[in-house]
Design brief:
By secondary structure, this protein is an alpha+beta fold. It contains 14 helices and 13 strands. Helices cover 28% and strands 17% of the residues. A hairpin with a 6-residue loop joins β6 and β7. α3 crosses α4.
Length: 419
């Protein structure tokens, strides 16, 4: 198997966390001070109360959480501890549930991930975030946060302050003129933060490459290339440092696995300011589509010093994180079956399939398939052996270029072999 991964912290590179550790620690300090100013008498959100009840009644869960706070992450020199107790952790998380992400290099787009950053890189944290009981509690918390982000109250960050999404720097970063919005409306016409996050392009902004040529495969997301792997195996040690892909695990034991053995996986990640809807890479018929539950804050612990920052964890997340699996039988017989796997990272609360993505439905290359509701995200395309003639130059990973450009959605990604 051959592969090429990004040797950088993807969360920071993609703008989900500040590039500078000092900026992250400054945010954590400010957040802790805001929470402490409220005192400990304020009631916790019901989702946090349920999590606390789980911690109190389950000795193993309690052990994981207390130890992951006490342990020091081995992979990075943290100057300042920001977690001291389980109760403090619950209150820091509780305060996020009425916050919407702000704009800015020194701001935190995934605040829950920032709070858990310390714990995610400890030995007990690795175990805790793989525990199904803890992940069920985290899903409950993320669903609660998602409800706020889908409410009109979350639009308060759509303003023109330095950290608002209408400021000059934010407008430039997201290219708002490319998207459907109402310039005269106080909130650009968006009903909520999530409505803004899942904004749609204006007509004509992302034309589909070679619409009449079924050999041309297009980018399913607006995303930066992360990895291309060939000769992928049915089962492999996806938690290992060389980051192999394991088809049986990625595709959640789907019946299609055997067709992809020896094939190719392309993976790319989405940045905080990117477009977050998915589009079909080929024309063809939907065979199956489902959402596979998984972990939310688990990271690979096999990387030694790199474990705390998910330098290699993106491939790992493709096997364990909550993800959708969409199987499409391409109209081009050489391409045949293709798997599209959008994967939630960090604060993602859901991968939402479009209502038309049903078995038997035909999709045209470039048709929308669904979207990430909020949070850091990555995706994979899986091809059978012998399908790909070549990937375009823009689709090749550039692990040593922190400014590598994203491949625009619906532009050419690869070309299939002739019949």
């Amino acid at each position: 198997m051959t592969s090429a991964h990004q040797g950088v912290d993807v969360r920071r590179r993609a703008g989900w966390l500040p590039a500078d550790q000092e900026d992250l620690e400054a945010w954590l300090t400010d957040h802790r001070e805001r929470v402490e100013a409220k005192g400990t008498r304020a009631p916790l959100h019901p989702a946090l109360l349920r999590f606390r009840e789980l911690i109190e009644r389950d000795a193993v869960v309690r052990m994981y959480l207390e130890r992951m706070i006490a342990e020091v992450p081995p992979g990075k020199q943290y100057r300042k501890r920001h977690l001291h107790s389980v109760d403090q952790l619950l209150r820091l998380v509780d305060a996020v549930l009425t916050m919407a992400p702000e704009f800015g290099d020194a701001n935190v787009t995934t605040p829950l991930g920032a709070i858990l950053d310390w714990a995610m890189g400890t030995p007990s944290g690795f175990a805790a975030f793989r525990d199904p009981r803890i992940n069920a509690a985290l899903r409950d918390i993320l669903d609660a946060w998602s409800q706020f982000l889908c409410s009109p109250e979350s639009r308060y960050v759509l303003n023109d302050s330095d950290t608002g999404w209408k400021c000059t720097a934010a407008r430039r970063a997201i290219g708002i003129e490319q998207f459907r919005h109402d310039p005269g409306d106080e909130h650009w016409g968006f009903a909520s933060w999530n409505d803004f996050f899942t904004r749609r392009f204006r007509d004509g902004q992302r034309p589909v490459a070679a619409p009449d040529d079924d050999k041309v495969i297009v980018s399913a997301c607006e995303a930066t290339p992360y990895n291309i792997a060939t000769d992928v195996q049915r089962r492999d040690q996806f938690w290992a440092k060389n980051e192999p892909y394991s088809l049986q695990d990625m595709l959640a034991d789907d019946d299609s696995v055997e067709q992809f053995v020896g094939g190719t996986v392309y993976q790319a990640f989405l940045s905080a300011t990117d477009y977050h809807r998915w589009h079909s890479p080929v024309s063809g018929a939907i065979v199956r589509a489902f959402v596979q539950p998984g972990t939310y804050y688990s990271e690979a612990d096999s990387q030694g010093a790199d474990a705390v920052e998910p330098t290699y964890s993106q491939g790992y997340l493709a096997h364990v994180a909550t993800r959708a699996v969409i199987l499409i039988e391409a109209d081009d017989p050489v391409i045949g079956l293709v798997a599209f796997v959008p994967i939630g990272m960090s604060d993602v609360s859901s991968c939402l399939l479009g209502p038309h993505v049903q078995p038997g439905a035909h999709v045209t290359k470039g048709d929308e398939l669904g979207y990430f509701q909020f949070g850091g995200s990555t995706y994979c395309l899986i091809f059978r052996p012998g399908v790909i003639a070549y990937f375009v130059l823009a689709a090749l990973p550039q692990p040593h270029n922190p400014d590598a450009a994203a491949v625009q959605v619906c532009t050419e990604l690869a070309t299939a072999h002739p019949a």
